[in-house]
Amino acid sequence: MPTILSELSGIEARNERYMSLHVLTKLFIPFSIALSILFASDLYSALTLVFVALALIVAAGIPLSSIKRYVVVIGSLTSFIAISLFLFARIPGKVLFEACLVRFEAEKGVFEWKLYITDNAVMYASVFVSRIFAMVLSAMLLLGTITDREIVWGLRSLGLPFGASIAVSLFFRGIRLFVSDFLSIREAMTARGVDFARESLIKKFALYSHALIPLLALMITRSYEVSLALETRGITPQSKAKVVYHRYGFSRLDAALMLLFSVLTSLYALGWMI
Amino acid sequence: MSVMEVRDLWWKYRGGGDYVLRGVNLSVREREFLVIMGRSGAGKTTLLLALNGVIPKRLPGEFRGAISLLGRDTSSLDVAEIANYVATVFEDPEIQFVMSTVEDEIVLGLEALGLSEDEIRERIEWSLELVGLGRKFLERNPYQLSGGEKQRVAIASALARRPRILLLDEPTSDLDPKGKKEVVDAIRRLREELDITVVMVEHDPDLVYEFADRVVVLARGKVVASGDPADVLGDPSLRGEGVFPPQVLEVARALSLNHGVKSEEDLVDRIRSKGFSVKGEEKIERGESGKIVVSCEGVKHVYEGGIEALRSVNFQLRLGELVALVGPNGSGKSTLAKIIAGLLKPTSGRVVIEGLPIDRYDRMTLSSLVGYVYQNPDHQIFNQTVFDEVAFGLRLRGLGEHEIRRRVRSALETFGLLGKEEEHPFFLSKGERRRLALASIYVLNPRVLIVDEPTTGQDMIFNRALFDLLKRVSKENRSVLVITHSLNLAYAYADRMVIIKDGRILAEGRPCEIALRDNVLREANLNAPPVSRVYRRLVPESTSVPITVKDFIERVSVAP
């Protein structure tokens, strides 16, 4: 079964051992890393999480080359954080570099706007960047190892009602249809002479707002047709299922990993409190 | 014994104007295979929705009359209760899918019945076997199956509930010839192996003639004919209601051999037993005329992910011709068409439009030269009125309002939409939306008009009128390239047919030449027209074959 990441970008996780873990474990691990990131206040703890997430990505068999898709995002965020800290926040510490960009002298004093790089500013920037990187990696781990089928049946085995599980499944289906409809409508506009690459931002916005009309119409028509089709199969929001057809086994490895990552998050939380 | 009785049924959708069903009376007998025919908008699907209880339980409107299911008035039953006896398969298999594997899709309908896991498993395997799929499909994603496989999964999930009555709403209309054959085989199997009552809405006379015990024709919400398939399909007074005979029956009637002719074999036997003579064979004129307007040389296209959609395609399109591009789903038809329209870039190879490489044109100029009409009109329509929709491309090109009005009016007139200028496109019927999509491209006056699957879900009258129109457009010093699964229309209207499979052009030529190329047709899962097949069985050494019934009758005479 294709994972959510593989449906979006064609990247497949290849490790069968990791993929055979219980859906709850596969949900819990990235969640635990994401939670720990909130408590990571120094560079070492943040970098540890980056390495843990990277190790898990390797273990799951997600190709590391797939990270390059996010390099631009990470690069932009890194630059933004660094510029903010070096230009707009005068963080105390050992000054590594200092340059005056603007200087005004007036009767009441001197105003200076400086590029001010201290060891602490570099440290803060590094912590922020590491946290963002760890967050991106944990999201990749989650999307790269989970299928929508596992989410639906995993939640069902945890007691999610039958009707709600259909809603979850329809949600995933809706996203795919929405994206594919949007691309078709955009292409149909191109076929009539619209050149999106050359249009101004305002014109682009107006054209995309045009696309909302067929998108909404298609969404409404489809929802209506799907609900009728479901009812003619005897499925209503009130329907109940007496059995859960697919049950995923919870192995010792699942239990061990859940415990391990619970401990990890607890340690981070404890460290943050202290 | 009757399993369903419809008595004096009237139905009007809320806000929908007139009644869609007007006093329908119908009795469905147990184990009967009943086919409902009629033009688009005649009320066929509405009648099916009334049979499965969606009308009046789930749709707002005005309902009169009564429907009884197995002796119980359906007004006292909920849709989900009716679903225990009546299963429905819709025209578009995808709207019926919710889950991400075939197994889960079938499980979905069975869990609600409260069956045990073993019973569910047993029913899944039984239903998949019945429709010719099997265990290997359990883990497949239903959205990634071919059209025929998707529809068979939909039928399997309907049958797994073991209904007494199966409603099929144009189950083959969205499919390529291969998919259609797969679904027809599945219906044939369930007809032979199950004691089930089937009510099917269908336009295809060949299918109706093979399966139906009885045919009912609806027109403007009323039953206007009901009876034996041969009688109803052969009734010339029903042509206006979209009921046409299959070619086999039409030939049999024209040669006064109509009694007992059910298949091509029957027709061949009857003609042989009577004795026949054949007129001299028509010489096929070779050579093409008309200026080349599109030329593809060694065009290859590989999608992201490595899927090779086109493998070194050489193709030419001339002014004044209507070319039908046929082949199975996924064969590369749409990819080739989109490359010609400049919507996709070839990975390698050269595309020349009107003597210039395609990349020398800007978007606006190219879209004025090559128009592309999408399969689903809802992907193409995005304005608030019919007028604005057709005018969109002209406004984009900066034409004056007076000129825009003149050209929009002319396009609307050509496509029969005059008088609907101020209507919202989404309130038009599907056939009208399709014509609107065509008009909005036609108005740009392109030299090449590419039309992707224009006949899906439309009745025979609409389809013939559309192909008449496309033929006329091609004669206005333009070229028309139609991607279609409707082989009978392609044979009847195209100047040239191009067969494409696995990204390669297998064959191209005049329809009467294509009909002779058995190996190619077999490889592409296509068929020659029934009259061509019958003719070749009568005259195996023939070097040209008739394509239409008229050609056949002109060439074959039967002893009186």
Protein architecture, described:
The complex is a heterodimer of chains A (274) and B (560). By secondary structure, chain A is mainly alpha-helical. In chain A, 67% of the residues lie in helices and 8% in strands. Chain A folds into two domains: 176 residues, no CATH class; 79 residues, no CATH class. In chain A, helix 4 runs parallel beside helix 6. Chain A is flat, with a radius of gyration of 25 Å. Chain B has three domains: 242 residues, Rossmann fold (3-Layer(aba) Sandwich); 70 residues, no CATH class; 218 residues, Rossmann fold (3-Layer(aba) Sandwich). Helix content of chain B is 36%, strand content 23%. In chain B, strand 9 and strand 10 form a beta hairpin. In chain B, helix 6 runs parallel beside helix 7 and helix 15 crosses helix 16. The two termini of chain B are 43 Å apart. The relative contact order of chain B is 0.10. The mean pLDDT of chain B is 89. The chains are: A mainly alpha (274), B alpha/beta (560). The interface between A and B is large, with 54 and 68 residues.
